[in-house]
Amino acid sequence: MKKLVLYIVKRFLTSKPLIGWGILFTFFWIFVGAYLESSSLNSVPTSIFKEAYYTYTTSWFMFAIIYSLSGLATTVSYTITYQTGSLPFLFKFGKLTPRKYLASVYVGMEIVSLVIGLLMTAFTTILFSTNGKGVFVYPANIPITILAILLAGFFMTSLAFLLDIVVIKYLGLKNQNFVSFIPLILGFIFYFLYIYSTFKSAIPDYLSPFNALMLIAGIGFYGKALPVSMGQFTAGMETSVPSVSLTYLVASALIWGIVLSVIDTVLIKKITLRNINEGKIF
């Protein structure tokens, strides 16, 4: 199991698609937020500028975490596809069991998620603190920030596995390219819904694992409770809008991850050999 975990960590941390889309592309958007979009805060009064800037930076950090780890999920979703030739054989005749395999992948993905999440934290801290705005920003609550990264890695891995197993078993590999991008698409959708919506109820945040994970990360960076939707939030007036509960957010993320993992454990036993050429578009 140890060797498999180390192999998974090395394999993903050196994956060109993950480095390109998950890390460098996210870095590009953090740069845009820090050096280009931040000019929108120039008209904010000095008395509340620091608070407004922290809120602004937090929203970008939430994006960085959810996008980069959604990119990891997209990479993970291809894993089983290229292992369908060996996994059924190993499960049946070898010492590897579905549970051991999943456990190894989950542990490896948590390590990879932590590395990526800490990189996003460092990128956000450095770029938003050195763009000439005169405010040094950093995660106000590091333990919660790390918790958010680990929970995001757990959920994204379980979701990616489920999507890939469904493709292999039911939809066919011709749908692989579309289905693998579902985590990224959902990450974008739920992020912008939170940023621009004016919901007054926290229920959508608790029901959506993407919202829950973003908000946990945001609370870790901001250090205080965040509103149920950013659209009705005014910097320096946090008490004027309802806030989310960190406990409920963590519970939501955990429940989603556990439920999907249980489904993965059941379905992975049913995977069979598929011809990789089925996935070719042309």
From TrEMBL:
Q: Where are the transmembrane segments?
A: 18-36, 56-80, 101-128, 140-166, 178-197, 246-268
| Alphabetical UniProt keywords | Membrane, Transmembrane, Transmembrane helix
Q: Which protein are we looking at? A: Uncharacterized protein
Q: Which organism is it from?
A: Candidatus Acidianus copahuensis
Question: Which lineage ranks, top first, belong to the organism behind this chain?
Answer: Archaea, Thermoproteota, Thermoprotei, Sulfolobales, Sulfolobaceae
